[in-house]
Amino acid sequence: MDANHPVDFFDKQFQKQVSEQSFALNPFEAAVLPHLTGSVLDLGCGLGNLSVEAARRGASVVAVDASPTAVAHIQRVAEQEKLALQGVQADLGNYSIDGSFDSIAAIGLLMFFDRARALELLEEIQRHVKPGGCAVINVLIEGTTYLGMFQPDHYYLFGRDELMYLFAGWKVLELNYQSFSAPDNTEKVFATIVARKV
């Protein structure tokens, strides 16, 4: 299967959403939006719904995604609404974070890499959050049976409590688990953590 399978999968989805003008926040984004303040980095931002809302609320946002459709949409909205919002197209498989941020979000991103890269990127996120700032991470975890969006052997389902252990030494503000039905009688099981760097 093509190494760009997840990018192509989501780019087609984003094209449909743009044509339908469907830009609602998903449940994870709506729940974590209040934690995204000051300077914000949104990794794997998709169509930028979360980034746009954070910028509308006064944050200065860098929104990064591999999808050209997503980044073009973000740049259009930023221009139209004169938002402090920058869309960046990048391959997150080898992306390096530049600078420090008050808040860094990675919603539904880290599971698209093998374990080594997922953990490396998480460590990089943690390093680049300013003291007192927040990391917002949402991943699929073990128990997930819907794997259609993944490239075989190129994904990582986190252990149920793995995020909690990986944020040892941080103040955990929220830790939630949610399950959703998926196509073909499968299931998606998510963990979401919001943690403050102390």
Question: How are the elements arranged and paired?
Answer:
Layout: H1 5-20, H2 27-32, E1 39-43, H3 49-56, E2 60-65, H4 68-81, E3 85-89, E4 101-107, H5 115-128, E5 129-140, H6 162-166, E6 171-182, E7 186-196
Parallel strand pairs: 1-2, 1-4, 2-3, 4-5
Antiparallel strand pairs: 5-7, 6-7
**Helix/strand/pairing class, anyone?**
alpha/beta
Separation, N- and C-terminal Cα atoms: 42 Å
For CATH, the homologous superfamily is named as Vaccinia Virus protein VP39
Q: Which term fits the overall shape?
A: globular
Strand neighbour order, sheet with most strands = 3-2-1-4-5-7-6
| Mean pLDDT metric | 91
Q: Would you list the SSEs in sequence order as H and E?
A: HHEHEHEEHEHEE
Largest sheet: 7 strands, mixed
Q: What's the tally of helices? A: 6
Helix content: 25-40%
> What ranges have pLDDT less than 50 throughout 5 or more consecutive residues?
none
Strand content: 25-35%
In the CATH hierarchy, the architecture is 3-Layer(aba) Sandwich
Which terms would index this structure?
7 strands, 198 residues, 6 helices, Rossmann fold, alpha/beta
Descriptive notes:
There is one protein chain. This protein has a single domain (5-18, 34-196), classed as Vaccinia Virus protein VP39 (Rossmann fold, 3-Layer(aba) Sandwich). It contains six helices and seven strands, in the order ααβαβαββαβαββ. It starts with a helix and ends with a strand. Helices cover 32% and strands 29% of the residues. The protein is globular, with a radius of gyration of 16 Å. The chain has a seven-stranded mixed β-sheet. The protein is α/β, with parallel strands linked by helices and 198 residues long. It has helices at residues 5-20, 27-32, 49-56, 68-81, 115-128, 162-166, and strands spanning 39-43, 60-65, 85-89, 101-107, 129-140, 171-182, 186-196. 38% of the residues are buried.
